[in-house]
Amino acid sequence: MDLSDESTGGQTFDLTVAAVDEEALVDDTAGVVAVDRSVHLAGAEGALLRADEIVAGYVPGVDILNSTDFYANEGELVGIIGPNGAGKSTLVKAIFGLLKVRSGTVTLAGKNITNTEPHRLVARGLGYVPQTNNVFQRLTIEENLEMGTFLRPERFRQRFEFVAELFPTLAQRRRQRAGSLSGGERQMVGMARALMMEPHVLLLDEPSAGLSPMLQDEVFFQTKQVNAAGVTVVMVEQNARRCLQICDRGYVLDQGRNAYTAPGTQLIEDPKVVELYLGTLARAR
Q: Which of 13, 176, 238, 261 has CA 20 to 30 A from 37's CA?
């Protein structure tokens, strides 16, 4: 599997309608303004993970994602933010095969994985940590990590050593039942279990949700550590400002469509993003 990086060299792609020339805009039949996809196509060339024009939803005839584009280059930490109901979690669920993609394509390392079953995606190098129900509460930490290698149990010892370096507290408390852990500790177990299969890409769905500010900081720190260890990370977050502070590049979704994408630090300073998204989301925190 060729996982070579052909990143765009830090280019900024602003997909907001306000920043696109009028010639690039097309009104669809619903009266929604569409954006020229050339910037996405240029940035996604050679990406490790990409999604093109994804349409998906939970109820027949009702689409949450409306031709959503996304990509992550090898080694990137990519954040996905936006208001409630924007389609953030829906996007990662569609990528991971938990939600049927009605149209569009998802590719991993150049291979089409659209609507592939989750356990097959795990075997192909895609990991996922849900927002809730992310541990087996009656099992110990060690048993949870063993479940992470259920497809290849012979790799447990080797992968446990790797995970123990990233999460030393979990290794020290390996005999403790996961149900007795705090929310932040459970999030660490969920991340550690997903890493047991040595994924190329790790999808995190709202990892800081419901946690205290101190535990949120711990989750963001550990996410950076996982990324620094060589894992491409895609993180959906409601704590928009904190997410953009640590990610290499961020996406802002609005009503299932791409509104903006740029380096995280640049999005934090963008007046339109601050006014339309960060201000409201920051006040919610």
A: 238
The candidate with the shortest Cα–Cα distance to 55, out of 46, 47, 40, 66, is 66
Return the half-sphere exposure (C-beta side, CA atoms, 13 A cut-off) of residue 161: 3
Q: Which residues does 155 contact at the CB level (< 8 Å), separation at least 6?
A: 149, 196, 197, 198
Whether residue 23 has pLDDT greater than 70: no
pTM comes to 0.85
Any idea where the domains of the chain sit in the sequence? 75-97+114-284
For 244-260, letters b (16+ CB in 10 Å) and e give: bebbbbbbbbbebbbbb
How far apart CA 203 and CA 234 sit, in angstroms, is 5
Indicate the fold that domain 75-97+114-284 takes in CATH: Rossmann fold (3.40.50)
CB 238 within 8 A of CB 82: no
3-class DSSP assignment, residue 158: helix
Q: Are 278 and 241 in contact (CB under 8 A)?
A: yes
